[in-house]
Amino acid sequence: YIGTGLNESIKITINGTPGNDLGAFMNGPKIIVNANAQDGIANTMNSGEIIVHGSVGDIIGYGMRGGKLYIRGDAGYRVGIHMKEYKKQIPVIIAGGTAGDFFGEYMAGGIMILLGMNGKSPLVGDYVGTGMHGGVMYIRGKVDPYHLGKEVSCLELSEEDMKLIGSYLKEYCEYFGFDYNEVMSGKFTKLVPLSHRPYGNMYVY
Q1: In CATH terms, is domain 37-196 a member of 1.10.3720.10?
Q2: Taking the C-alpha atoms of 175, 76, 137 and 154 in order, what is their torsion angle to the nearest 10 degrees?
């Protein structure tokens, strides 16, 4: 629970592996982890930054409402579940490696970028975007259709998309020492929801 509920503009540096729910409900601080991190990072985080110089566990960014979560390595299962945005408050998650199943499950808003810089395959697990009804995901590489949930569609990136991801990836690459031009030269896949109410036929209203 390091950084949980903090509302101050402070910087926390962790030279080891923090426990679960790092930065939960956080509103402003910057946390730098010079190692791997565990589950539940940025749970319902409102604003601030979490920079992880390693890999992370499961359910990171659960219900995340704002701020940035940058991960150098891999992420586990159910990344960005129930992420949401409101007006100009847009949460962002970027991981440099791969991610497990249910990436972007029930995602309602925000931006997620998965880079696959470590060359592992597959880039992402199964059921990508299951129940997704908002936000956008960008995956650097090809995503086979059988990995996708039935609530998402794949699109080509527009010039505006490239500008958008470029603005975040420039900062990301500066943090971790990646070559920005190399990262941007990869072919990205854009994933968006097919509907803003994918399960509407299951409810009375």
Answers
A1: no
A2: 140
